[in-house]
# Entry
Amino acid sequence: MYNIVFFSGGVSSALTALWIRNNLPGKLHLLFTDTLTEDEDLYRFLDESIDAIAPDGVTHITSGMNVWDVFNKERFLGNSRIDPCSKVLKREPARKWINARYSPEETTLFFGIHWSEEERLSAIKTNWNPYKVRSVMCEPDSFFIDASAIKTTWYEQTGVKIPRLYDMGFTHNNCGGFCIKAGKYHFKKLLQTMPERYDYHANKEEQIRHRLGDVTILREQRDKTKYRLTMKEFASRSEVKELECHSCRCFG
Ligand code: SF4
# Structure
């Protein structure tokens, strides 16, 4: 039996892998699909986590493109509903890699999804059919941990410092705090904590708008009408109000 964990660089998938190592039979393999848009501290976390988990195997897949390379290649800027970046950099290479090596009969795919966001699982199960998909943090008889305890439990059990983006206020460690699906909260956080990285993405958005026309990642609603909102326009507003947090749904 093979247990493959989609190892994203976040604490939930790392803790999921550790739990599997300690509680389930079978070979444990960690699969990391690199978007080349990641925060530098993600690689430190991956290396130290791998040492702590001691899996039977680790695979690091990169397509050689970052998210902006994908948007330009596909001639489509991702948004909260359509994510060519995740499809090209994560889902497709992961599918190809798994199909070539593991049969559905002997393989279970694990995702670090917490029960508080369990609604994500059904789409993932459909996407990965006929492979069996599990998320042990959604299973009352497996690893039903409180969301607020994930980071401390991880640190207590491994001594591995959590990725720095969490300390900076981000709710995920994907794409260096940038995400086309995560919404204004993350863009505000990115602007406040890493303005140079925000500018990099804002310039990339401006460049692709020259190629593709009036496309934006963000939208806003005024008087019941939706408007496109560029990252530059969003940053230029002197008052970026308190915003609700919507967690990143990458790989979902
Ligand atoms: S984290 Fe967001 S921007 Fe990065 S690959 Fe996933 S959906 Fe795309």
User: Anything to note?
Assistant: Residues 84-101 form the longest helix (18 residues). The mean pLDDT is 93. DSSP finds ten helices and seven strands in the chain. Strands lie at 2-6, 27-34, 57-62, 107-110, 132-134, 218-222, 225-229.
